[in-house]
Amino acid sequence: MNLRTLFLLLIVVAIGALAALNWTTLSTPTTVSLGVTSIVAPLGLLMLGLTAVLAVFFVAYVLALHGSVLVETRRHTKELSAQRELADKAEASRFTELRGFLESQQTALLARMDALEARMNARARESENVTAAYVGQLEDQLQRRGGPQGPVNPPIEPSLRL
Fold first, then answer.
1. Where is this region: Disordered (predicted)?
2. Three-state DSSP class for residue 92
3. Strand partners, 30
4. CA–CA separation, 162 and 131 (whole Å)
5. Where are the domains of the chain?
6. Which of 40, 37, 18 lies closest to 29, judged by CA?
7. Residue 36: strand, helix, or coil
């Protein structure tokens, strides 16, 4: 029980105790003016009755306010869960798009690497062929000059330089 509820309960108990202790005074008939006319009635009971009616309306107002807050909270909770679900779906679709993009980029990268590897292999074969041709040309020149009896360091022709 919070402090406000305890305070209101103490006030209701105090009003009840005062009414019980002063019942004879509250029920004594007097002339009560209603503005347009006057009536003879117990003023204390009229005031006590109006206080009770006011308390009933106050409790009804508080319950209605509490009910509307609960309905509004439930509505906000539903909207929030719907928005959360929508955000989760959007995030999942973004991840799916990102996965597709990365896979396409990976495929393109692998194709490019395969092409580069093929070009490197072709250049390596070409380089091997050129080197073999140069070596063959050098061997031919050595054989034409007399084989192993020829000069130890034969001059290299300018067309054979790299």
1. 142-162
2. helix
3. 41
4. 10
5. 3-32+40-130
6. 40
7. coil
